[in-house]
Amino acid sequence: MALGGYANRIAHVDLTAGTVEYRGIPEDWARKYVGARGLGVRYMLENGPQVDPLSPDNLLCFMNGPLTGTEANMSGRMAIVTKSPLTGTVTDSHHGGWSAARLRWAGFDGVLVKGKASSPVYLFIQDGKVEIRDASEVWGKGVHDTVRFFRERYGEKDLSVIAIGQAGENLVRFACWVNEDDRASGRGGTGCVGGSKLLKAIVIKAPKKMPKAANLEAWKPAHKRALATIMDERNITSPRKGGLSVYGTNVLMNITSAMGALPTKNSMLTSFGPSAEKISGEYVKEHILVDDPTCHACPVACKKEVEIKEGPWKGLRMESLEYEPAWSLGANCGNDDVNTVAKLIDLCNDYGMDAIETGHPISIYMEATERGYTNGDGGLVWGDSMGMVELVRKIAFREGIGNVMADGADATARHFGHPELAMTVKGQGVPAYDPRGLKGMGVAYATSNRGACHLRAYTPAAELGVTPLGALKVDPLAWKGKGELTKLFQDLHAFSDSLDLCKFSAFAEGAEEYAAQYAAMVGVECTIEDVLKIGERIYNLERYYNNLAGFREGSDYLPARFLKEPSTMPGSQGHVCELDEMLAEYYAARGWVNGVVPESKLRELGIIE
Amino acid sequence: MQVNFYATLRPIVGSRTVEFDLGENITVKQLVDVVVTRFPRLREELLNADGNLYPHVHVFVNGRDAPYLPNGVETLIQPGDTIDIFPAVAGG
Ligand code: SF4
After folding, report:
1. Is the pTM of this model over 0.95?
2. By the 8 A CB rule, do A338 and A283 touch?
3. Alpha carbon distance A267, A131 (integer Å)
4. Mean pLDDT of the region A433-448
């Protein structure tokens, strides 16, 4: 391949045959889809969109981008790409930490896993080689014990472990891969696909070996300039000064609650009132924060390590009391006990379950209890934190009502005879922004290619005025312009997810910084327009995959609650989400016909010949 | 009148909520002036060189960012209104 920057080495693992082959990346694909998310989806398309997500034929891709593990800041990211057993769409879920960088330092742009092993295995990756090894000793263990086991076996130095827990083994449909104890590729059930293949872990041993840019002369200023934006005191990324760096993502809890945009009690309400403060980033910093960990090459250090000081979980240390899971297992379930929220998130990490998704079947169960819909299946009242701890275990082990919940929010709501209780899009639960108070999120959830998701188009960046240097600020309660805004963010993020840079880079960097770093690393020309065009191509590629997988006209929707039940809380009182209007604007901007990509668009973008 | 402060503004004012002694018929803009007079370090956090609120700063009156109210920062604050002041915040 003529492009620089890449390792140009992908391991193709066939677990049924027990073989590993090494191949380069087709140059045309690298140019069109860049890496990580984009390239992973291209491999998924090649594998066939009709595949059953839990069959051996499904492909599970661990993909880096051309910036992963380089000197580029916020570049410790990997995309896990597969067909989701939760949504039936193609999905990609990213994690930080160091495993992505180590995969690159071990000499790989990606590892593609197909087939099913005859007994539990893990992949051991070192020095440009992938070996399939016996995992019977760790099968049945949680993520924390699995990580510990491999640290003892291979030594902690230069080691990264990406593992599934019991939830993945038990085929919980929203099971995830967790990297280094706390960093989850949370969404979409990628860990469930790992479990279906009897693949327990990816173990990477690789000392630091930063890849060099193809154009070193251009790299230096490109890197310097991107770093300057991250360090700029006017941006929330600014180390030890900006809100994201000081408080972590959970700095959002109070503002979304105050403006009536925090889905509360299964989205029956749009604010958690004074209880929001008790699970907020501010409260955490004042009471239980002990450290500020970071990821490869990131000066922001938004991870917030906490230690529980009292109660049944005294002494527990964990580092992912993030906004989304704190919302899901907190406000969403009427739970304002921050210690239990930390415990619940840690349990999700240990069992290997998406902590955002896990709150959904639980809050549905709580609402069903309140409304008298549980029909002899017991019940759980809002905020019953001890009951939640037990329920999370039942979900991971598919015990009792947990067996229903393990199939996701839609299955849980159907079980109680009230599908309208599921706050999902394409089977995936909504994250922590109520589209009645942040309207852009409504069209972003509906049109996300992986089911409800805030990270396909982070419209709150504009609705809260935190785009780089506050360049873009729009009214969170206005719907006009949000369709176009969503497209813009979707295309921009599709590109950065393919580089693969942390999503939070978008609070500092723009298309210009992305273009300059990509161009220098890979050794090509790249403009702002190219960034957005490539992003658009990747977004359309995913939509094309989903269209072929059966998601046709009318697949972009929101739960009726957001459209028909007005917010009753200050900030957004009286508002519903005007989805139809935003969707019309969005489809016009995309050139799609009611959610389907026309052939002419596919040709225009070079997706088909 | 009570004003609630959040995130990086809290260490500057020293608490979550600060009581301000204000007369009647005060606008949001006047309130902000009172706030930065009492806490001079807040001036650079909240206001640009022209003395206007930064776009990333939020002054909420009952949950609504003041610039989006019909009278914007000239809105008169009513007794019992909830006032929240946030610096730039996001995450996700
Ligand atoms: S901003 Fe946070 S999540 Fe992103 S790379 Fe830095 S420490 Fe990791």
Report:
1. yes
2. yes
3. 46
4. 98
Q: What is the mean pLDDT of residues B54-71?
A: 96
Give DSSP secondary structure letters for A301-323.
Answer: ---BEEE--SSTTTT-EESB--H
CA-nearest of A10, A211, A1 to A109 is A10
- CB-based contact (8 Å) between A250 and chain B? yes
* 8 Å CB contact between A444 and A456: yes
Please, are residues A349 and A143 in contact by the beta-carbon 8 Å criterion?
Answer: yes
Partners of residue A235 in chain B, C-beta under 8 Å = 88
Question: How would residue B20 be classed by pLDDT, with cut points 50, 70 and 90?
Answer: very high
- Considering only CA atoms, give the Rg of chain B: 12
Domains present along chain A, CATH in parentheses: 10-205 (3.60.9.10), 245-429 (1.10.569.10), 442-557+578-604 (1.10.599.10)
Domain B2-86 is found in CATH 3.30.460.10? no
What whole-number percentage of chain A has pLDDT above 90?
97
Which ligand 1 atom lies nearest to the CA of residue A237?
1
Question: What CA–CA distances, in Å, run from A366 to A373, A377, A412, A413, A495?
Answer: 10, 12, 11, 11, 39
Hey, is the C-beta of B50 within 8 angstroms of any chain A C-beta?
no
Q: Does B55 contact A at CB distance below 8 Å?
A: yes
Shortest-distance atom of ligand 1 to CA A503 = 4
CB contact under 8 A, A244 and B7: no
As a whole number of angstroms, the distance between CA A101 and CA B50 comes to 45
Q: How long, in residues, is chain B?
A: 92
Pocket test for ligand 1, best of A74, A180, A244, A503 (most atoms within 8 A of CB): A74
Distance of CA A355 to the CA centre of its chain: 11
Which of A385, A394, A288 is closest to A340 using CA atoms?
A: A385
